[in-house]
Amino acid sequence: MNYIAEIRQQNPLIHNITNMVVANYSANGLLALGASPIMSSAPEEMEHLAQLCQALVINIGTLNVAQVEAMLIAGKAANKNGIPVVLDPVGVGATPFRRQTVQRLLDNIQFSAIRGNAGEIATLANVDWQAKGVDAGEGKADWHTVAKTVANANGCVVSISGEVDYVSDGKQVVTIHNGTPIFPKITGSGCLLSAVCGAFLAVEKTSQNLTALVRACTAYAVAGERVMQGISSTQTGQFAIQLLDQLAILDDETVEQYGRVNYV
Amino acid sequence: MNYIAEIRQQNPLIHNITNMVVANYSANGLLALGASPIMSSAPEEMEHLAQLCQALVINIGTLNVAQVEAMLIAGKAANKNGIPVVLDPVGVGATPFRRQTVQRLLDNIQFSAIRGNAGEIATLANVDWQAKGVDAGEGKADWHTVAKTVANANGCVVSISGEVDYVSDGKQVVTIHNGTPIFPKITGSGCLLSAVCGAFLAVEKTSQNLTALVRACTAYAVAGERVMQGISSTQTGQFAIQLLDQLAILDDETVEQYGRVNYV
Amino acid sequence: MNYIAEIRQQNPLIHNITNMVVANYSANGLLALGASPIMSSAPEEMEHLAQLCQALVINIGTLNVAQVEAMLIAGKAANKNGIPVVLDPVGVGATPFRRQTVQRLLDNIQFSAIRGNAGEIATLANVDWQAKGVDAGEGKADWHTVAKTVANANGCVVSISGEVDYVSDGKQVVTIHNGTPIFPKITGSGCLLSAVCGAFLAVEKTSQNLTALVRACTAYAVAGERVMQGISSTQTGQFAIQLLDQLAILDDETVEQYGRVNYV
């Protein structure tokens, strides 16, 4: 399927319950890609938005108790309405509050996909790893196993973002080799990718969630690579802006041509 | 009146009760134009800010119950202090919570102006229209009548933003033909225009609110047109940045020269 | 000490309790410099973050009652854990709510540094000054005395940002003469500087807080000067982006070479 073409044609409405750091960037990124963002954490409208939207993206970056309640209502309503739900467990290893919240979300909502950095997904897999706040951190892990484990435990697709991306549905593990080291220097670059995953899932009508996630992560990585062709590795401000421009012109053929994807 | 020159000279303080998606962009846009922004939703300081500021802009983009209470306090205080109040009914048609909130605001606050996209103003006019979340949506409507109806129902100026802008005080309808299709691709571009309307109203001392709104919307549209002369229609990231640069150099003469305004 | 090199090597985690207007820009600025940001205002995780982070930055820009409670918990925990705490009293003179909140913070937390614009620090010194919302405002004041007074009253370093920066520990007053007039036109440029001060303090292990603040403010001002060499004084959008790029390449030698610092 030509996901990007479908997104531009269907213009799916993506409901984001997200953090105040990245709300603007995520909205602009979705618009650039061709989707429509709506950002809301008001419990009063969570059920109505689930009837209106084609995907829900839950991001715990600046969570608070009231917002978590909204996440639970929205997630259950999305499940009831059969729309895909993406979880971005931002900084889940940083504090017990984040770990407990993510557990509660996983216990109550059936996610279609979980996308995070190495530190976040390692936390979900109970792997020993030195995560650092909301950053990926460092350590050694067998990412094939980690991705599979978390996917199987939660019955959904899992994507680990980094120099190499790992995407698994619990059976297969796909690796994407288009990493751009500048991504972690842009706040919200991971959060925007989670929103982009939501848009790809929104137009995936045959439950090929693994394929949708692989395409989403490949498209995003290819967009980053193409931006880096024109700027230096320290231009983080420029990168953030030009990534939006790049998402607006990216097409499925380009992703197909430049993506370096290994199906293991 | 030379509104932009007056704004640069008076540097009016604009109180924005706004959403987390656009707060940064609205603040930077007001600063570029020559006004001073203050963003606050704390009920404790709403009355004090009404004594300090020259205009209030209420935006329901990421509303919650606590913020709505602040809006009501601030709006009433602004009315008592005689400063103009602008309403941006972001995505009002999307959910009952938004519709009820806007009704409550309209019942309790006398607005000087309401600015929204086609979908939002159509909702206020009870016109059949397919709005899409916070986006304009599509359909057919007689915008002259819609603008007049909403203006008369609320005793204020109404501005509908789009390819053609419609501005009405309930008697006259003015159209502005400087539309730039990239605007809806930038999150908060409408929200910033509402804030700009607040700045124009802040320096309008003779209650010529229709004129102030027409000039504000024309200035903003002309700024957009001028940015588009230097970039391509897909450069949404660049557009957002250069629109700020353009607002910082725009002057009344340029708006006068390039504005295509029809008084019907 | 080579502060910037140390920040890039240690990559300190900086906890920001900040406002929704500047959260994104502060996070991107800290990342560009080489530090790691985490933004959180959830009372449930304030104590855990104090054990994880190397500095805390408290910013009252869009304060609310719940966030103030989080600030108090976080500040006390930071004091207990011996990590530096920076206060940015955004718009403190604007309303009684802000003044009372800052007083409460100062009564309960031992700050390492307070950084603000002229209007904000004048308010803390009870000096007659026409501040304007969250902007610096105008008037006449003896900034040497103001800086010393506020530093002595609170037992910490104080930095007043403006055309000339004043930094004092209550005994000495240091002035920095690298001011760039465009800074106040960028929302959150002061807030980012406060976060940068947090990063410099995080790597200062011998309690030379005056030196750390002087270096932080000089580095930031030099970065601004260097950006201005390539753009015009009205390009506020470009300035904001290029300041990030500049922070990413700035080094201690450049700051040493171009800083114009007077130790009085």
Can you count the helices of chain A? 11
End-to-end Cα distance of chain A, whole Å, is 21 Å
Radius of gyration of chain A: 17 Å
> Could you state the CATH homologous superfamily of chain A?
Ribokinase
Most extensive chain-chain interface: A-B, 31 and 33 residues
- Calculate the mean pLDDT score of chain A and round it: 96
Oligomeric composition of the shown chains: homotrimer
What name is given to the CATH topology of chain A? UDP-N-acetylmuramoyl-L-alanine:D-glutamate ligase
Instruction: Give me the strand/helix succession of chain A.
Output: HEHEHEHEHEHEEHEEEHHHHE
Number of strands of chain A: 11
Helix-strand category of chain A: alpha/beta
- The number of distinct structural domains of chain A comes to 1
Can you tell me about this structure?
By secondary structure, chain A is α/β, with parallel strands linked by helices. Chain A has one domain: UDP-N-acetylmuramoyl-L-alanine:D-glutamate ligase (3-Layer(aba) Sandwich). In chain A, 49% of the residues lie in helices and 17% in strands. Chain A contains eleven helices and eleven strands. The first copy, chain A, has helices spanning 3-10, 23-33, 46-52, 65-81, 96-108, 118-124, 143-154, 189-202, 209-228, 236-249, 252-258, and strands at 13-17, 36-39, 55-59, 85-88, 113-117, 130-132, 135-138, 157-161, 165-168, 173-176, 261-263. A nine-stranded mixed beta sheet of chain A has the order 2-1-3-4-5-8-9-10-11, with helices on both faces. In chain A, a hairpin with a 4-residue loop joins β9 (165-168) and β10 (173-176). In chain A, α3 (46-52) runs parallel beside α4 and α6 packs across α7 (143-154). The model of chain A has no long low-confidence stretch (mean pLDDT 96). Chains A, B, C: Substrate binds at residues 39, 188. Chains A, B, C: Keywords: ATP-binding, Kinase, Magnesium, Metal-binding, Nucleotide-binding, Thiamine biosynthesis, Transferase. Chains A, B, C: Belongs to the Thz kinase family. Chains A, B, C: Pfam families: HK. Chains A, B, C: This is Hydroxyethylthiazole kinase.
